[in-house]
Write a structure and sequence with these properties.
alpha/beta; single chain; 42% helix; 11 helices
Length: 275
Protein backbone atom coordinates (compact mmCIF):
# COMPACT_ATOMS: atom_id res chain seq x y z
CA UNK A 1 0.00 0.00 0.00
CA UNK A 2 1.44 3.38 -1.01
CA UNK A 3 1.94 6.19 1.49
CA UNK A 4 1.29 9.84 0.74
CA UNK A 5 4.11 12.14 1.84
CA UNK A 6 1.54 14.46 3.45
CA UNK A 7 0.96 11.79 6.08
CA UNK A 8 4.30 12.63 7.68
CA UNK A 9 2.64 15.84 8.86
CA UNK A 10 -0.48 14.15 10.17
CA UNK A 11 -1.51 13.20 13.66
CA UNK A 12 -4.55 11.10 14.53
CA UNK A 13 -6.06 11.77 17.94
CA UNK A 14 -8.20 8.91 19.19
CA UNK A 15 -10.09 8.81 22.48
CA UNK A 16 -11.53 5.77 24.20
CA UNK A 17 -13.92 6.57 27.06
CA UNK A 18 -13.90 3.57 29.37
CA UNK A 19 -15.59 2.25 32.49
CA UNK A 20 -15.36 -1.35 33.74
CA UNK A 21 -14.42 -2.83 30.36
CA UNK A 22 -11.57 -5.17 31.29
CA UNK A 23 -13.19 -7.89 29.16
CA UNK A 24 -12.76 -5.91 25.93
CA UNK A 25 -10.54 -2.85 26.37
CA UNK A 26 -7.29 -4.69 25.59
CA UNK A 27 -8.65 -5.75 22.20
CA UNK A 28 -9.71 -2.15 21.56
CA UNK A 29 -6.25 -0.83 22.42
CA UNK A 30 -4.50 -3.45 20.31
CA UNK A 31 -6.66 -2.58 17.31
CA UNK A 32 -5.34 1.00 17.55
CA UNK A 33 -1.67 0.48 18.33
CA UNK A 34 -1.25 -2.36 15.81
CA UNK A 35 -2.31 -0.14 12.89
CA UNK A 36 -0.01 -0.08 9.86
CA UNK A 37 0.74 3.60 9.53
CA UNK A 38 3.04 6.35 8.41
CA UNK A 39 1.68 9.06 10.68
CA UNK A 40 1.57 9.76 14.42
CA UNK A 41 -1.11 8.57 16.84
CA UNK A 42 -2.17 10.33 20.00
CA UNK A 43 -4.25 7.81 21.93
CA UNK A 44 -6.09 9.10 24.99
CA UNK A 45 -8.07 6.79 27.26
CA UNK A 46 -10.48 8.52 29.63
CA UNK A 47 -11.30 6.04 32.40
CA UNK A 48 -14.09 6.91 34.83
CA UNK A 49 -12.56 5.23 37.88
CA UNK A 50 -13.19 1.65 36.81
CA UNK A 51 -13.66 -0.85 39.63
CA UNK A 52 -12.53 -3.94 37.68
CA UNK A 53 -9.08 -4.61 36.17
CA UNK A 54 -9.33 -1.92 33.48
CA UNK A 55 -6.89 0.47 35.20
CA UNK A 56 -4.27 -2.27 35.58
CA UNK A 57 -4.57 -3.05 31.86
CA UNK A 58 -4.20 0.63 30.98
CA UNK A 59 -1.14 0.98 33.21
CA UNK A 60 0.49 -2.00 31.48
CA UNK A 61 0.07 -0.32 28.08
CA UNK A 62 1.28 2.97 29.51
CA UNK A 63 4.54 1.22 30.41
CA UNK A 64 4.65 -0.79 27.18
CA UNK A 65 4.34 2.30 24.98
CA UNK A 66 6.59 4.58 27.01
CA UNK A 67 9.22 6.05 24.72
CA UNK A 68 7.41 5.03 21.52
CA UNK A 69 8.14 7.83 19.06
CA UNK A 70 5.02 7.21 16.94
CA UNK A 71 2.35 6.64 19.61
CA UNK A 72 1.61 9.06 22.44
CA UNK A 73 -0.41 7.05 24.96
CA UNK A 74 -2.25 9.15 27.57
CA UNK A 75 -4.23 7.59 30.40
CA UNK A 76 -6.62 9.68 32.48
CA UNK A 77 -8.52 8.17 35.40
CA UNK A 78 -11.02 10.52 36.97
CA UNK A 79 -14.70 10.83 37.71
CA UNK A 80 -16.80 12.04 34.79
CA UNK A 81 -20.42 12.84 34.07
CA UNK A 82 -20.92 10.00 31.61
CA UNK A 83 -19.49 9.46 28.15
CA UNK A 84 -20.05 12.88 26.56
CA UNK A 85 -18.19 14.56 29.40
CA UNK A 86 -15.28 12.12 29.04
CA UNK A 87 -15.08 12.79 25.28
CA UNK A 88 -15.16 16.56 25.78
CA UNK A 89 -12.35 16.37 28.32
CA UNK A 90 -10.28 14.61 25.66
CA UNK A 91 -11.13 17.20 22.99
CA UNK A 92 -9.58 19.82 25.26
CA UNK A 93 -6.37 17.76 25.46
CA UNK A 94 -6.07 16.62 21.85
CA UNK A 95 -3.44 18.00 19.46
CA UNK A 96 -4.86 16.44 16.33
CA UNK A 97 -5.14 16.79 12.58
CA UNK A 98 -7.81 14.08 12.30
CA UNK A 99 -9.73 12.68 15.24
CA UNK A 100 -12.31 10.15 16.34
CA UNK A 101 -13.57 8.37 19.42
CA UNK A 102 -13.63 4.62 19.75
CA UNK A 103 -15.69 2.92 22.45
CA UNK A 104 -13.85 0.56 24.79
CA UNK A 105 -15.53 -2.55 23.40
CA UNK A 106 -15.24 -1.70 19.68
CA UNK A 107 -12.24 -2.21 17.39
CA UNK A 108 -10.65 -0.71 14.29
CA UNK A 109 -9.95 -2.76 11.19
CA UNK A 110 -6.19 -3.36 10.62
CA UNK A 111 -5.77 -0.76 7.84
CA UNK A 112 -8.44 1.68 9.08
CA UNK A 113 -6.24 4.70 9.75
CA UNK A 114 -4.32 4.26 6.52
CA UNK A 115 -7.60 4.17 4.59
CA UNK A 116 -8.83 7.30 6.35
CA UNK A 117 -5.53 9.07 5.72
CA UNK A 118 -5.49 8.16 2.03
CA UNK A 119 -9.02 9.44 1.51
CA UNK A 120 -9.69 12.26 3.95
CA UNK A 121 -6.33 14.01 3.77
CA UNK A 122 -6.55 14.60 0.01
CA UNK A 123 -10.23 15.59 0.13
CA UNK A 124 -11.71 19.01 0.80
CA UNK A 125 -14.39 17.29 2.91
CA UNK A 126 -14.08 17.89 6.66
CA UNK A 127 -15.33 14.54 7.94
CA UNK A 128 -15.87 10.99 6.75
CA UNK A 129 -17.52 7.70 7.58
CA UNK A 130 -17.30 4.16 6.22
CA UNK A 131 -18.53 0.61 6.59
CA UNK A 132 -18.78 -1.27 9.86
CA UNK A 133 -19.17 -4.92 10.83
CA UNK A 134 -21.07 -6.13 13.90
CA UNK A 135 -19.22 -8.60 16.13
CA UNK A 136 -20.03 -10.55 19.29
CA UNK A 137 -18.07 -10.97 22.52
CA UNK A 138 -15.69 -13.43 20.84
CA UNK A 139 -15.05 -11.21 17.77
CA UNK A 140 -17.29 -13.31 15.52
CA UNK A 141 -19.25 -11.35 12.91
CA UNK A 142 -23.00 -11.37 13.58
CA UNK A 143 -26.15 -9.70 12.26
CA UNK A 144 -24.82 -9.61 8.73
CA UNK A 145 -28.23 -8.67 7.37
CA UNK A 146 -28.14 -5.41 9.39
CA UNK A 147 -24.69 -4.66 7.96
CA UNK A 148 -25.98 -5.34 4.46
CA UNK A 149 -28.99 -3.07 5.07
CA UNK A 150 -26.74 -0.21 6.22
CA UNK A 151 -24.36 -0.73 3.30
CA UNK A 152 -27.28 -0.25 0.91
CA UNK A 153 -28.33 2.95 2.71
CA UNK A 154 -24.79 4.33 2.60
CA UNK A 155 -24.55 4.29 -1.19
CA UNK A 156 -26.60 7.47 -1.50
CA UNK A 157 -26.34 9.77 1.47
CA UNK A 158 -28.04 13.08 2.24
CA UNK A 159 -28.80 15.10 5.32
CA UNK A 160 -32.50 14.34 4.90
CA UNK A 161 -31.70 10.59 4.87
CA UNK A 162 -29.77 10.93 8.14
CA UNK A 163 -32.84 12.60 9.64
CA UNK A 164 -34.86 9.63 8.42
CA UNK A 165 -32.62 6.99 10.01
CA UNK A 166 -29.32 6.92 11.88
CA UNK A 167 -27.42 4.76 9.42
CA UNK A 168 -23.86 5.91 10.26
CA UNK A 169 -21.76 3.86 12.71
CA UNK A 170 -19.87 6.18 15.05
CA UNK A 171 -16.70 4.08 15.18
CA UNK A 172 -16.15 4.77 11.45
CA UNK A 173 -16.49 8.56 11.77
CA UNK A 174 -13.37 10.76 11.59
CA UNK A 175 -13.24 14.54 11.38
CA UNK A 176 -10.70 17.29 10.79
CA UNK A 177 -9.71 20.05 13.18
CA UNK A 178 -11.82 22.61 11.28
CA UNK A 179 -15.03 20.90 12.38
CA UNK A 180 -14.42 22.01 15.97
CA UNK A 181 -14.36 25.67 14.93
CA UNK A 182 -18.01 25.35 13.88
CA UNK A 183 -19.44 22.57 16.02
CA UNK A 184 -17.46 22.72 19.27
CA UNK A 185 -18.05 19.94 21.77
CA UNK A 186 -20.47 17.07 22.29
CA UNK A 187 -23.74 17.82 24.05
CA UNK A 188 -23.23 16.56 27.61
CA UNK A 189 -26.98 16.27 28.09
CA UNK A 190 -26.99 13.42 25.58
CA UNK A 191 -25.85 10.05 26.95
CA UNK A 192 -27.03 7.45 24.42
CA UNK A 193 -27.13 9.42 21.16
CA UNK A 194 -24.52 12.15 21.56
CA UNK A 195 -22.82 10.86 18.40
CA UNK A 196 -26.03 11.11 16.35
CA UNK A 197 -26.65 14.62 17.64
CA UNK A 198 -23.09 15.64 16.76
CA UNK A 199 -23.35 14.24 13.23
CA UNK A 200 -26.58 16.12 12.64
CA UNK A 201 -24.85 19.28 13.83
CA UNK A 202 -21.74 18.71 11.70
CA UNK A 203 -23.77 17.97 8.57
CA UNK A 204 -25.51 21.35 8.87
CA UNK A 205 -22.12 22.84 8.00
CA UNK A 206 -20.11 20.15 6.20
CA UNK A 207 -21.14 17.36 3.85
CA UNK A 208 -19.27 14.10 4.62
CA UNK A 209 -16.97 11.96 2.55
CA UNK A 210 -18.26 8.39 2.30
CA UNK A 211 -15.46 5.81 2.17
CA UNK A 212 -16.77 2.44 0.90
CA UNK A 213 -14.31 0.40 2.99
CA UNK A 214 -14.68 -1.46 6.29
CA UNK A 215 -13.23 0.83 8.95
CA UNK A 216 -14.31 -0.65 12.29
CA UNK A 217 -16.19 -3.33 14.19
CA UNK A 218 -19.12 -2.60 16.49
CA UNK A 219 -19.39 -5.06 19.35
CA UNK A 220 -22.96 -6.03 20.24
CA UNK A 221 -23.95 -8.05 23.31
CA UNK A 222 -27.03 -8.09 25.52
CA UNK A 223 -25.51 -6.09 28.41
CA UNK A 224 -23.85 -3.42 26.28
CA UNK A 225 -25.25 0.10 26.22
CA UNK A 226 -26.87 -0.51 22.84
CA UNK A 227 -28.05 -3.97 23.83
CA UNK A 228 -29.55 -3.06 27.20
CA UNK A 229 -30.98 0.36 26.38
CA UNK A 230 -31.96 0.14 22.72
CA UNK A 231 -35.54 1.27 23.41
CA UNK A 232 -34.38 4.52 25.05
CA UNK A 233 -31.66 4.97 22.42
CA UNK A 234 -34.09 4.87 19.50
CA UNK A 235 -36.51 7.19 21.32
CA UNK A 236 -33.65 9.65 21.76
CA UNK A 237 -32.79 9.38 18.06
CA UNK A 238 -36.39 10.27 17.16
CA UNK A 239 -36.32 13.21 19.57
CA UNK A 240 -33.10 14.52 18.02
CA UNK A 241 -34.46 14.07 14.49
CA UNK A 242 -37.44 16.22 15.50
CA UNK A 243 -35.10 18.84 16.90
CA UNK A 244 -33.03 19.14 13.72
CA UNK A 245 -35.74 18.50 11.12
CA UNK A 246 -37.73 21.58 12.20
CA UNK A 247 -40.22 22.67 9.54
CA UNK A 248 -37.95 21.95 6.57
CA UNK A 249 -37.78 18.14 6.67
CA UNK A 250 -41.33 17.06 7.51
CA UNK A 251 -41.17 14.06 5.14
CA UNK A 252 -37.90 12.86 6.70
CA UNK A 253 -39.45 13.11 10.13
CA UNK A 254 -42.51 11.16 9.01
CA UNK A 255 -40.24 8.39 7.70
CA UNK A 256 -38.21 8.43 10.91
CA UNK A 257 -41.42 7.81 12.88
CA UNK A 258 -42.06 4.72 10.75
CA UNK A 259 -38.45 3.55 10.99
CA UNK A 260 -38.53 4.08 14.75
CA UNK A 261 -41.36 1.60 15.24
CA UNK A 262 -39.84 -0.83 12.72
CA UNK A 263 -36.43 -0.86 14.41
CA UNK A 264 -37.86 -1.12 17.95
CA UNK A 265 -39.94 -4.13 16.89
CA UNK A 266 -36.96 -5.80 15.18
CA UNK A 267 -34.65 -5.25 18.17
CA UNK A 268 -37.22 -6.61 20.61
CA UNK A 269 -37.48 -9.79 18.58
CA UNK A 270 -33.69 -10.09 18.38
CA UNK A 271 -33.43 -9.43 22.13
CA UNK A 272 -35.92 -12.18 22.91
CA UNK A 273 -34.08 -14.58 20.65
CA UNK A 274 -30.72 -13.42 22.12
CA UNK A 275 -29.33 -12.90 18.63
Amino acid sequence: MLFNFYMFLMKFSIVTPSYNQDEFVERTIESVISQKWNFDIEYIIMDGWSKDNTVEILKSYENKLKGNDRITFIRKSEKDNWQSDAINKWLKLATWDILTFLNSDDTLEPWALQIIANNLQKSDKKWSYGKCRIIDKKDKEIRKWITMYKNILWRKFTYSKLLTENFISQMTVFWKREVMEKCWYFDENEHLCMDYEYRLRIWEHFEPLYIPEYIADFRFYQTSKSGAHFDKQFKDELRLAKKYARWKYKWSLFLHEINHHKVIFAYKILHLLKI
